[in-house]
Queue: 2 jobs
Job 1
Amino acid sequence: MNDDKNNKLLLVKDLTKIFSIGPVLSKVKIFAVNKVSFDIDLNKPEIFTIAGESGSGKSTLARMLLGLLKPTYGTILYKGKDITQINNSKSWKWFTTEVQPIFQNPFETFSPLNKVEDYLYDTAKNYNIIPKTKDKSSFLKEYLSIFGLSYDEIKGRYPHEFSGGQLQRLSIARALITNPSLLIADEPVSMIDASLRMSVLNLFKELKKQFNVNVIYITHDLSTAYYISDRIAIMLRGNIVEMGPVEKVLENPLHPYTQLLRKSILEPIIEKSIMEEEIKLSVLEEKEFTAIGCKFSGRCPNIMDICKKKEPQEYVVDDRIVKCHLYADLLMKV
Amino acid sequence: MDEKYLIRVENLKAYYSTNIYGIQSSIKAVDGVSLKIYENEILGIAGESGCGKTTLLKALLGIIKPPLSIFYGNVFYRFNEEEKDILQLKESYIKKIRWKLVSYIPQGSMSVLNPIRKIKDTFKDFMKTHLKGIIEEDKFDIIVKEHLESLGLPLEVLNLYPHQLSGGMRQRVTIALSTLFKPKIIFADEPTTALDVVVQRGVLQLLKKIQRENKNTIVIVTHDMGIHANISDRIAIMYAGKIIEIGEKTHIFSNPLHPYTKYLINSLPKIGDKTFKKSIPGTPPSLANPPLGCRFHERCPEAMELCKNLEPEFVNTGNKHEVACFLYRGGKL
């Protein structure tokens, strides 16, 4: 275990967040994130996708990883340190230099009343990044050129004068000022136009290659996940139901839910028209959260008796982890 | 597809004009669009945000409210061999045909349904307003039930309130509501944008089913090319207030002509394809002050001298595939 700690950049174990909803006397417990475990290796930069539909708990997970939300139980070890236990400002500052967020809407990331350049400069100042010999313009000029952005283009301009794609690239540039090892990006391209979306995604790829930055990419869009990531975890109602290399998980999904997701993606390929086969939708979302056993049991085409009674274990099948009773027998045989 | 068109748009220009402290400015959201929409087809209108696709839809529906105004052009509806300019018609007439002949599926179904009334009451209210005096009230229940059954929706939703339904079911109830009177033409503005992938597929399935059974026309506006690939018959690509390419789905996807469409189609990520995808250089122009000439020339890799000053007209390249680009005019006017 100790050895494991030292080789991992991020080690998440049994992370759980319970929200209680409803009136005082009849509160319902919702497991927004339920016993999630995964890890990222220290010296092997990767882009790790957490994918799921709305209400799958992926944003709650992101907020816990960023230290913004306290988990009900479970641990998050970042470079061996438990970040849920951070209680002094020095460790917190260390953590925020190491891990930086990127949010969905770049227009909300930047204050509309401040110039974008000030924003970048202030971040650098707050973390004492700027060498004493440099002034604002020469620092920003040099810094932005790393990302193929020109200082002259952003000089004196306010956020509303940029397009979403430009601004998102600037917010990524801002996040990287502290030279972090891990970026947590929550739906970074969902607000960005199709024609500019790829430029942001390509930047992530570039960062991984050139600066060894790890990225946790949180999204509902499986096609972009396939394009940029190395590994993927599929979440359903707080649980990771399948996790493994992105090619394997998306090209040949094992969990019935992943299979349904895969079938539902509207791909821009005309030869393959969907709509032939009808799919089943959930009528009430709350029912799925509170379901005993597998959360997918209400819609699963391969349902068995056990699925409604017992929560499935995680099984290792073909390089990946699958949380489904279907693979219990398979494991026995091996 | 025959030449029986339902809607004909002639050189439509719809601008948002504002007057702040004496400074007049206008946003040219739709700037010179001509288009025909035929019977029994699904027409997709694609484009980035801010390219004017929603404004075009508003004009097609005849919902013109300040600051939006029609600067030029006509929108003709053609029902029973008779053409009528929707932009000149009286509000009372438009009200009469809306929902019955022309219907609309809004984007945010959350705010469409009355939160304090059960779904069945919403249906009843809706029918009372539009069918009073035509059909007796006690038949309403049967009509609603038949309609929901034909769409494959569970009847239990009728006794629920909107907040009890999941997002996808709510959107499907909204669709059921807007197709209740079997309209001839349905406009849908980003009908699935806020929905999850699985639910999105369910909603599109429903739309396709309605179209197949009633043989009506659906105009679907969305930026998502994946949706167009799966449900549209014809696709119109909009860029900065203009339609720059229009054609059948198969032609647009297998043989995109306009440099912008080429970029758009080739930059789409697909599962099973990890090759490098380039995004389009530059950013879309501001519609308050669009560039001279072809609106794409600043970002176009194949721009010529001509493109900077003159606007290209449509060229028919055969198979009803039209494109507005000088490349297909041999670099000439």
Job 2
Amino acid sequence: MKNINWSLVSTHVILIIGVIFMSLPVWVAFATSTHSAENIIRNGLQFWPGTDFLKTYNEVLFVEGGVMKAVLGTTMLKNSLILGLGFAIGKVIISMLAAYAIVYFRFRLANFLFWIIFMTLLLPLEVRIIPSFEVVASLGLLDTHTGLIVPLIASATGTFFFRQFFRSVPDELLEAAKLDGATPWGFFIDILVPLSKTMIAAILIIMFVVGWNQYLWPLIMTTKEENYTLVIGIKQIYQVLAEGGELPQYQKAFALTILATLPPVLVVLIFQNWFVKGLVESEK
Amino acid sequence: MAKVELKNVRKTYGNGAEAVKGVDMTIKHGEFIVYVGPSGCGKSTLLRMIAGLESVTEGDVLIDDTLINGVTPAERDVAMVFQNYALYPHMTVRGNMSYGLKNRGMNKKDIAGKVDEAAKMLRIFDFLDRQPHELSGGQRQRVAMGRAIVREPKVFLFDEPLSNLDAKLRVQMRIEIKRLQRRMDVTSIYVTHDQTEAMTLADRLAVINDGQIEQMGAPIELYNNPSTLFVASFIGSPQINLLPVHFDGHYLNTGNVQLNGFSNLPESTDLVLGIRPDDLRIDNNGALSLRVDLVEQHGADNLIYGEALGCGSSVENEPMEICLKAGQELIPDLETELSLAFDTNKAMIFERESGKRLV
């Protein structure tokens, strides 16, 4: 240890400061969530973990909460998972099929249609939220998973990414497949989908997180508490704080927040490995 | 048995560009036909029309007397080897070779048998479970050929299959392709821009220029008896020496050099004299002289390049380059002048304007 590599040390110091800066709020939220409500009211945010970890998390997950005291944390977790996964998987399937049609089939107005799809990127959900609600309501799909997912399932971003990717696939592969007697569906399933593995993983990650974090749509779509997602649940707890006369349950809000961040983090971690592996292997 | 016929085949693209301008050709069963020509001459388009990857604008394509213009590529019973191999990157070698058979609904046991057999023939049996990215260029090329072979097609189509390989491997694969084709006795069409490949592989060679067949015949026939200036300059390595000349009734004149031994040539038109580098010989009484500026030693023989003194160039004030093929003993010093002679009956004379061969 005679020669200390100062540039390495300083790089690491900077990185460590960055890590602390980014993760400290999460840590404070976690530590606070393990204290009792009284302690938080009296002493504010807590930096060191308290003793109520099991109690708080048990209550949040397995004891009915919410305004009507009618929803379990696990139910909300399940709802969020269904929304996140349905949203991500649905988007991948729909946008892959759309991109496949646009790239590989010659039909009139294909390009025009693509740009129409692309332009919808400019219109956020909020712009069409009232008509969308109206449509879903008159179809009788309020308070259903279908009603929650289907209106959000079309994805201009996904279609665009898959279109770009399909266009980079060499034409010879299509020609070879044609000579090998592959049907259009066969080419899609046997060749295009496996080739898109890394793309699919990337879009699944992004879309799962986006779906998980959906707030406005589930908020107006769900009226019964058993259909709440976690994100809505957190908001409801704060609502109780504002309106109810009880002692504010800050520790529960924090616990729910921590729980709400876990699945997206897990998805990113799991898929990231696959994603990186795919990237390394594909090019040689 | 598979006979391929092209009848006045044309290809015009949507923007009006004509890629193939009327090609007629009959290919007998088991023949190895090579299409050779510069890039953009339409040779690949022609091949792709036979494969069914490109629509035929006009004319008929027939395999075994059946019109196949509107038949899908898979039903034409042809197999193609692509320049960049076009292997499915996510499948193993076995997967790549089986895919076409699987799509035809063949049962698994038969597929495995056929793949094993083809893999042994191509010496890729040990790689069957690898993926394409784990293979070298030559091995990938073999897999691409294996994929074609297992289908037992009526016609093999090769689209510049060796151009991504290094020189040594290219020669080796060239020989293997030829052997394989002989052994399997399958009609084959091979596209290349490499005239050595074309000469060595072909039973018959079609030189294609600007969407049309310039000349078609046995390679040696095209080499010895090119019917146009284009064929003469395209076939043969090193390239044929071409001197701009005109005929004055007695002599061929180029610059201030007079060549005798020619008669019955038109006097009013510009002509081109073509002499193969191997037909030139050193002769102290020779009419041509060469000032050496480069000697390439190829082993068995040397190529001597230099300026043809006194010969008029087609480009003003630019020396006329010629090349002589000599044995390995002859290594002249640079700047030496060599006198060269040639047999008039081996010289070729072309009309400059039309490129037509006169003598």
